[in-house]
Amino acid sequence: MLGSIPPVQESGNNFVDLPTLVKQLCDELPPHPAVGAPINGAVVARVKEVLQQTRLNPREWQQHAVFRRGRYTRNIVGYSPNQFIALLLCWEKGQQSPIHDHSGAHCFIKMLSGRIRERKFAWAADGTVGPEAAEDPGLLDASKPEQSVGFMHDSLGLHRIENPSDEEAAVSLHIYSPPFRECLVFPPTGGAPKTAPMVSIFEPESARKAEENSPTISLQEFCKRLTELRSEDGVKANLHTVLDHLVSAEMTDIEWASYASPAHFSEFHPVQHIIHCDDDFSVVVTCWSPGQKVPPHTVGRGRMMWLKVMHGNLLFQEFSPGLFPWESDVERQTELGEGSSSFLEECGVRMHDLKNTSDSEPAVSIQVFSPPLTSFTFHSEKGTERRDLPRLVAQAPGVESFSVRAMGRTAGRWFLSFRGLQSLLNEEFSRPEWKPTTISTLLTKAVLNPQEWRERLSNAVPQQPWDSGGSSWPKHVLVAQDKHYTIILSYWGSGQERSVAIEGGTGMSWTLVLEGELEEQAVNIGNDGPSILRSSVLKEESCSFLSSLETSGALGADMVERSHSSETPCVSLHVYHPPLPQAWMRG
Predict the structure, then answer these.
(1) In 10 A of CB 228, how many CB atoms?
(2) Does the keyword Transferase apply (predicted)?
(3) I need a labelling partner for 561 at 20 to 30 A (CA). Which of 6, 88, 173, 272 fits?
């Protein structure tokens, strides 16, 4: 019975994706902080509390983690012009920073994995580094939430960060408010400090300006016009209209600062980030340091791409058909000069790459994809790499937010909390013409935070840890009960006994396997006895849809049996429509 399934109160932890955290920081930090401003105690307390409670999905932030043997690295994951920058710092075993200041900024640190040690130093009277602080060096530890957040300001002195471990790498999230392009580094033995850059690119020397007499629109206006192009004839009827709008698009000063500032350029790879996504289009800004390229890739059969070079020059290369791009010849090269706009209709089928041809000048480009694209799959001799495109900047005014229908048409994953999943389910179920296939797509693309669902399971059965086995009954946790649906989280233990659950008369149900494998059988009860309609093994991250009615591609099933028998446990998420008045679970 549903009453026997324990609902779990949400903890104080803040399970969010990176874009949501960026939005929260926008709300908490001063909109225009002054360089060198004294410590704002109220702001520091609020931001530290937000970071203390924040639990990011490791699968999301790990895509931005770049490690190098010779030194630690900085990688942008969030930005608000003149307000703050969020950087992911990656520390190999034993690596450390020089002693440095923060150019008058507030500096917040949130540990994501491993540990780092902070050594503080006083300022000497002559502006050089003074003695190390007498107190024990602070240790920030990702495994201990109460010790995972730190704060530093120039009025507190200088500091050096180091990874004390010779066995484990570390990753820390750093928030600097306001952003700064350079800081002072100090020799440990004394002496005058030196200025060190915090960004790999300063300004593109001549960001292209449109001629005064030519009609132009801002990037925000361009995105707005894309949303107005939806027509019964489909996007293909608007191919030339999209290109015409793109030709007219120019970035305003605030858009340059928001989407292509010096902080947006990486020394390791082009920085690609989404600034707009609706049901039909996604818009991606790419910042290219000199000589950088994206590996060979396709964008998917049937997907169209428009491209405009806002600054610099790019080379588009298309490869001849072959098994691997590095074994294929370049069949066609197209030089894309500054200000050029193109419609590249074959790129969805052919393997291709893009490169900044200059050894000294950065480049900036705008790409438009339809259907929307939010993820690339790159191919190289090292293997295949799937990279989800981040949203670095908080949602701009006037630009449409992401919707569940846009998710259904994108090529990419969506990092969600349970709360985010409920929001998208509410959006879809509130439509008069809601579709079961949209719910299936939503669950297939969703990547839930393992820390969140493990916490829910642990809190539900404190007397018996969720990762222990020995029971033939799966453990169930009520995640949400809404007028349109019920969400249940199930744990199937490991051990010798087989865990079995049987359901009947539940209307429509979706099952997403979060970890392990789950066997599922759809059964009809006829005059001649039960007959199996479908039997399958659901692997990790796979989703199934079943219905008691023959509708929306689902077989009409009177009963569903799910079972698990393995030495490794299984965790699954179940969505039921209509909501369950009771859980028809029985062993």
Answers:
(1) 10
(2) no
(3) 6
Tokens standing for residue 387? 């990279």
Distance separating alpha carbons of residues 8 and 421, to the nearest angstrom: 17
Among residues 208, 228, 215, 231, the alpha carbon closest in space to that of 311 is found at 208
Spatial separation of the C-alpha atoms in residues 533 and 556, rounded to whole Å = 9
Tens digit of each residue's pLDDT (9 = 90 or more) over 290-308 = 999 998 888 877 888 999 9
Give the rounded distance of the alpha carbon of 581 from its chain centre: 35
CA–CA separation, 544 and 572 (whole Å)? 11
Closest CA to 112 of 175, 166, 158: 175
Burial classification of residue 246, based on how many CB atoms lie within 10 Å of its CB (0-12 exposed, 13-18 middle, 19 or more buried) = buried
Cis peptide preceding 178, ω within 30 of 0: yes
Distance CA 510, CA 363 (A): 45
How far apart CA 101 and CA 115 sit, in angstroms, is 21
* Whole-number Å distance between alpha carbons of 63 and 386: 9
Say how far apart CA 577 and CA 523 lie, in whole Å.
19
Measured CA angle at 507 (ends 439, 513), to 5 deg: 50
Task: Name the region of 383 (left: φ>0; alpha: ψ -120 to 50; beta: rest).
Answer: left
Q: What is the pTM of this model?
A: 0.85
Helices (H), 494-540: none
Q: Check the CA dihedral 37-38-44-46 and report its sign.
A: negative
Query: Do 569 and 491 form a contact (C-beta atoms < 8 A)?
Result: yes
Q: Which residues pair with 446 in a beta bridge?
A: 414
Distance CA 419, CA 390 (A): 20
Whose structure tokens read 């190289």? 380
**More confident of the two residues 157 and 412:** 157
Q: Are 132 and 121 in contact (CB under 8 A)?
A: yes
> Do the beta carbons of residue 78 and residue 18 sit within 8 Å?
yes
The pLDDT tens digits of the residues spanning 34-78 come to 999 999 999 999 999 999 999 999 999 999 999 998 899 999 999
- DSSP 8-state symbol, 551: B
Asked whether 2 and 579 are in contact (CB, 8 A), the reply is no
Return the higher-pLDDT residue of 122 and 552. Answer: 122
Instruction: Give the integer Cα–Cα distance in Å for 233 and 240.
Output: 14
CA 59 to chain centre: 8
Residue 526's Cβ-side half-sphere holds a number of Cα atoms within 13 Å equal to 7
* Helix then strand then coil, % of the chain, to nearest 5: 20, 40, 40
